[in-house]
TrEMBL record:
Keywords: Lyase. The keyword Lyase applies. This is glutathione-specific gamma-glutamylcyclotransferase. It catalyses: glutathione = L-cysteinylglycine + 5-oxo-L-proline. It comes from the Eukaryota. GO terms for molecular function: glutathione specific gamma-glutamylcyclotransferase activity.
Length: 186
């Protein structure tokens, strides 16, 4: 296991860290993109109407970055936090070890470190895959689950990314947010 244990959040873990942590820092991982390619049949949808949530998609683009937040977990809480996240991130997600690049308030990259995150691979039964932004948006506006509406998830993630990395353009996320708002307001 990674020591100290750091957990990287790139979706709802950014605004809903429902576990104890001793430090939180913003930054990014490399060689991945964030995409709404995973179905949610519990948190943001149901089995009858699955919502869409984010996962990480590997890319050969070494300049690609996914921004998010890393949480340092105390040694006495490592096992309970991992058990909690294993349950929370059910529905096709699995653990992966990645390198995290923290960024300070002046946007300087500090020393990288190893972290754990959860991602949904193409092999899982809930992987929806690529679709047109408008198709995903139509799915999002119709869905809700035990954690709230799917559109709330999109809005909170977009807002969180603007707070964490205001100069970074997450084109997939922001295009989906705009499409969802357009449908939501019509």
């Amino acid at each position: 296991m990674i020591s100290p244990l750091w957990i990287f959040g790139y979706g709802s873990l950014i605004w809903k860290a429902d576990f104890p942590f001793i430090e939180k820092t913003s930054g990014y991982i490399k060689s991945y993109v964030r995409r709404f390619y995973q179905c949610s049949v519990d948190h943001r949808g149901t089995s009858a109407k699955p919502g869409r949530v984010v996962t990480l998609i590997p890319t050969n683009d070494t300049e690609a970055k996914v921004w998010g937040v890393a949480y340092r977990i105390s040694s006495e809480n490592e096992e309970s936090v991992l058990r909690h996240l294993d349950h929370r991130e059910k529905g096709g997600y699995e653990q992966v070890n990645l390198k995290f690049y923290p960024v300070d308030k002046l946007r300087s990259v500090m020393n990288s470190f190893d972290c754990i995150t959860y991602f949904a691979s193409e092999r899982n039964q809930y992987f929806a895959g690529e679709a047109d932004i408008n198709t995903i948006a139509r799915q999002v506006v119709q869905c809700s689950g035990i954690s709230g509406t799917n559109k709330e998830y999109v809005y909170k993630l977009a807002e969180s990314m603007r707070n964490i990395a205001p100069i970074v353009e997450d084109s997939h996320l922001f295009a989906l947010e705009a499409a969802v708002r357009n449908l939501d307001n019509s």
